[in-house]
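hey so u asked for the seq, here:
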Amino acid sequence: MCNHFAMGHTEPIVMQIYCRLEVTVTDPETVAKLAGQQLRDADIDWSRREEDLEEAVHQLESDLSQALACVIEHDRMVEHLPGVETRGGLVFTAFGKPDDRFRPGFTDFL
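ran it, structure tokens below
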């Protein structure tokens, strides 16, 4: 049994999930367009921003790494688990081979 868990514990326990997933993007244009559409559909007050909606969409659609990060739904990873609720998260992407810090068993980044 985990040291941080006790039967009858009533307070929520905050935990972190670290995950690395390698994907191959076979249709970058579709990913970019999906990210752009999701940005258009978002409820954002553009009057308080330096850029306008179309400029932001263009920038997003021009950056595959950012576009992919924007369309990943990390909260769906645990949506089917009873008693587990997503509080937030960070998704980032990178091109090429994985960073050595994210090798299984390598925990210096923690």
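The CA atoms of residues 46 and 87 lie 26 Å apart. The radius of gyration is 18 Å.
lmk if thats what u needed
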